[in-house]
Amino acid sequence: MTQKEPVPMGQKGRNMTLDTILEEIKKAEKIVILAHETPDGDAIGSCLAMNLAVKALGKSADVVIKEFPRVFDFLPGRDEVKTESNVEQYDLAIALDCADLKRLVGKEYFEEAKQTIVIDHHGSNKMFGDINFVNPVAPACCQILIGMFEYFGIDINKELGTCILTGIITDTGGFKYPGVTAETFEFTAELLGKGVNVSDIYKRVLQTKTKANFELMKRTLNRMEILEDGKVTFTYVTNQDLKEVNAGIGDHEGLVELGRDIEGVEVSIFIREKDEAENTYKVSMRSNNYVNVSDVCLMFGGGGHQRAAGATAQGTIEEVRDNEFVITNTEVTGSINIIKKFNWCISIILSNREIK
Question: How far is CA 257 from CA 34, 107, 176, 233, 265, in A?
């Protein structure tokens, strides 16, 4: 069963997919909640919010997140998160904020589960669950959960609201990205009335930097190259950098944003070394106005959103630097041609108005 349409908050009438999800949660005895690799605030917030919702329905669940960024340690339910489970088969596995099974951490629990549910907001979602509830219009997976929990009759209290709002704030960049809707602000206003400290969440997840993150930011800026008449930035960090600054889980977050915020830049590219022996790197991309970086990353086996996406690639930093993106403006078509060589060669044409 698959639904790929939004369910507004306060929707009246019945929804078959949501009814099925509720039924599966209620009848399951062993439930596991999972998220994608390198989880961000939306993935973390969604998982913890779902755990609280499952409790509100009189059930219990295991939340399995192997890498938990310390910036989110303040969230309700953090102390219940596990890095692994010894349960051989769950009755129900719920994947949140994950578009592809190969990016799901703990996919062995998902694949062995009797029933699986996918809840997500990525347009590139592969619909890999038995039940899929995907709304690509939502600016965050956590915003999908608002309508879902209200439909289930669950009271969104201060604790639940803190988890949900953390996901929304992080995935919208503090309400600044185009995907933000009127409902986003309406819900935020409701939570303010329930005692959720919006400004505190904002400061914790977007403004406060660890010392390691600050040191990585300095190195990232020092290495940054501005290419193609100022339209592209490229920078990177290595495992050696991470060791030298004593970086922890999540201390690299936000570094890709530095290049995008420069005047005139359309695409920011950030490379983070993953495995030195295998020469593998995590490629993160951000864009401002017209380049669909999700389509670019899909060509590398990755994906994401139009303005924020990522992939994993093999090669060396030198290969990336020497064969970087070439952007050529074509006045006749009004499009941008992006060509990348990184042990493979791809080209994709993106229109200022639409993908051709």
Answer: 26, 29, 13, 10, 11
